Amino acid sequence: MATTLTIAPMTRVEGHLDVEVTVDTIGGTQQVTDAKCTGAMFRGFERILTGRDPRDAVLMTQRICGVCPISHGMASSLALENAFVLTPAENGRIVRNLVLGANYIQSHILHFYHLVAPDYINTDGILDMSPWRPHMAAPDMITGTTATALVGNYVKALDMRRKAHQMGAIFAGHMPSAVSFVPGGTTKPVTATDVTAFRTLLTELRSFVSNVMLADGEALLGVFPNYAKIGKGCGNLLAYGVFDLNSAGTAKLFARGRYTNGTLGTVDTTQIREYVSHSWYTASSGNLSPANGVTEPAADKAGAYSWVKAPRYGSVVHEVGPLARMWVNGDYRYGISAMDRIVARALEAEKVSNAMDGWLNELVPGASTYTYKATPTTGTGIGLTEAPRGALGHWIQIGASKLTQYQIVSPTGWNASPLDDSGQHGAMEQALISTPVKDLQNPIELLRVVHSFDPCLSCSVHLVRPGKKAEICRVDVAAGV
Amino acid sequence: MDTNKVMTAMGVSRRDFIRATSAIGAAFGLDMTGVTKFTSKAEAKETAAGGLPVLWLQAQACSGCSVSLLNSIYYATIADLAVNTLDINFHSNLSAATGNLAVSAIEKTYRQGGYALVVEGAIPTAANGEYCTLWPGLTALKGVKRYAERASVVIAAGTCASYGGLSAAAPNLTGATSVSQVLGSGYTVVNIPGCPMHPDWMVGTIAYILANGTLPALDAQGRPTVFYGKTVHEQCPYLPEFTTKYSKRINHAGGRSCLDCHSRTDSSVPQSRALGIGGCLFALGCNGGQTHCDCSVRKWNSGAVGTPGVNWCVEAGGPCNGCTEPNFPDGMAPFYSLNGPGVDN
Question: For A375-386, what is the mean pLDDT?
Fold first, then answer.
């Protein structure tokens, strides 16, 4: 008999996420047969930005999310530069990459050790205190000396992610968000002392990522090889690419591209459409490019269950994230699964941290970090980059030197989207469907699949439809803005 | 619980936070009596009798203040706090428990009472608060009121919880407001604003409360004066440069700040600085004169116990955007008041 399971609030994600699945036994295996990732949030961020000085968007959009603010700052800077027809200063481009890289390292460390690992380690007898107790128990969890060692690294990782932010702050002003990002580059003059201080921390972090985190990732894979067969989902991958290696952005550390129905392809932004058939928006808000997107709430819309729109590339569902970046770039093509996402993320942390050491060498202390250009009266811009958890785009319009349109399509929009107009589930819903569930009281498998995506719902807001007390609409920050 | 085993596994020194209270004591100008009290509390946690229970709830938050908390080290690290000092019975980003198991942990803490309630994010009040639920059936509006009832102290983490912040920026469709507005006059809410908040402001305040059993002195905006008593401008390392360039234009009489006399859009103020050069950013829209906090001396992202941070906004060439004030962001924006780097005129 089919059973409905609801996990709310889902912890160890950024923000709040509620997951509802139907579990039934098919072919002798108890498994998920339907899934709804109800995320959504209407904080009205796009409305907040409208009418403001365009340059303020770099600071304000960083407040959408406290875990990936740097990525929003980057997307916003790129969108503004696109609209200003402005090329950032070379030092500024490099500094922004270094700050973004610092946040990638801290985010990937945080995700692996502090958000994911508690799903796989039984901490009884090691951490018998909150916030690690109570915890969901599963018989396959790692115990004994291996667990003790992993917990030791969990604590070491708290220190390491802190140091990654300390490193980023050298050029960002402070972390988690950066004050130094502006269209045209960055405001922080670069000194030789900065470079040395940054490199000292980077060296320590590179050692941790390569020697500790990668080893722990491989250990996890060794104990849980079955999760390399669980949580595949749609199998299509999309990456906007990130870390521009020249000021024109024509070369990137991670290339722009996609992997659709088993074939690699290029990205044409005009193929991106957002659908709303199962989202609480008016029909006229659907089937539009974010370049001229409309966001009109329709809280009582029949059949809808999320405030997240459903972004699709050429009508096809795509997954975004480190695995997509590594796959498109040719760095990792072993498989698509919950465990592949975790391993690819760790490998990406190593690749980024190694590249950063080279970027430090390219900085020219004393040389300009910033190129000025006046705010244009009118303009349009697109800023495509990658948050640690996947493709992020800002689409803007400027009129009378003010923002007249601001649309954000976030990674969690791609991954945690609801059904679209064609009846296709979002990537995370597809990954949940067919996931085996051994114990209905302890559906640890669902946590492992959801956490592998590193969902970012940082608005932490669940929306109840006005006037309807019992019905809940949740909030996805990233997508809902 | 085998404490030694835990400490070995965690690699955490149980003395760190006790040592930190000495630093706090010095910062607050306290005698060591308070530290002794606090030490007893920390010792209690070591003997598994429990530390200060904490419920950390997120409403219209972005998790930025939680991430900032993880960067704590000046007074204590987050590991030290979690293992030795606090019983963090719920935190959305850290709790191993999820779903109903997490809710049961929260309810158990509520029944026992005597905890610190920390709220991150603004509370939407439109539509009876139904724009934000902590979990199905409980709006943030009701939840914050409920969990404040039995709390021994209520702390607002960040500017959204303290004053509404970004969440309440115009046009504020959800009617977002602060924790103190929601709870009303029956409660004293300790506001720790900042977008994000500085981890030291939160950890230092908690240490003070544990050490003394009372709240620290608060200013009219509910902020601990030890951290928020002076403006960024008053403590700014670029103050001499400011004085040289702008002093003839400034009249501090009557306690007014420079910006009371010279608004950022005053065309008579020379646009003498370009972004990307550094130094005093008054002419580029710096809000330091009207912003209360110790960023300019404490700085951000410290690397060691008792050590100032590695950088802060103005040192990084970014004008202070006034994020610890009740009128942030709308009263502070536009953040770059001049249309690009001007020239001396």
Answer: 97
CA A474 – CA A10 distance, rounded (Å):
12
CB contact under 8 A, B58 and A464: no
How far apart are the CA of B253 and the nearest CA of chain A, in angstroms? Answer: 32
Verify whether the Cβ–Cβ distance A66 to B95 is below 8 Å: no
Chain B residues in contact with A469 by the CB 8 A cut-off are 130
Selection from A84, A58, A81, A54 nearest residue A71 by Cα: A58
For position B26, what pLDDT does the model report? 52
- Alpha-carbon distances of B158 from B11, B62, B207, B219, B223, rounded to whole Å: 30, 10, 18, 16, 11
Region at A299 (left for phi over 0; alpha for psi -120 to 50; beta for the rest): alpha
Q: Is the ipTM of this complex over 0.90?
A: yes
The pairing of strands A181-182 and A29-38 is unpaired
Give the closest of B96, B131, B300 to A464, CB-based. Answer: B131
Residue B136 pLDDT? 76
* Nearest by CB: B318 against A163, A187, A468: A187
Residue type present at position B162: S
Is A158 in contact with B70 (Cβ distance < 8 A)?
Answer: yes
pLDDT of residue B178: 98
Distance from the A423 Cα atom to the nearest Cα atom in chain B, whole angstroms: 26
Alpha-carbon distance A54 to B224, whole Å? 34
A346 closest CA partner among A117, A13, A42: A117
Predicted confidence at residue B310, as pLDDT, reads 98
Chain A nearest-CA residue for B78: A158
CB-nearest to A180 from B1, B62, B318 is B318
pLDDT, greater one: A280 or A41: A280
> Across the interface, do A134 and B97 touch by the CB < 8 Å criterion?
yes
Q: How far apart are the C-alpha atoms of A198 and A348, rounded to whole Å?
A: 20
For B108-160, the pLDDT digits (tens) are 999 999 999 999 999 999 878 877 778 878 889 999 999 999 999 999 999 99
* DSSP calls for B95-154: -S--HHHHHHHHHHHHHH--EEEEEESBEE-GGGGTT-EEETTEEHHHHHHHHHHTEEEE
pLDDT tens figures, B75-116: 999 998 888 888 999 998 899 998 889 999 999 999 999 999
Contact A289, A270 (CB under 8 A): yes
Contact yes or no for B174 and A165 at CB 8 A = no
User: How confident is the model over A295-332, as pLDDT tens digits?
Assistant: 777 767 888 888 788 999 999 999 999 999 999 999 99
Question: Is A229's Cβ below 8 Å from some Cβ in B?
Answer: no
pLDDT at A124 over 60: yes
Q: A334 and chain B: CB distance < 8 Å anywhere?
A: no
Are A343 and A323 contacting, i.e. CB atoms less than 8 angstroms apart?
no
Residue type, B48: A
CA angle A228, A229, A235 (to 5 degrees): 95
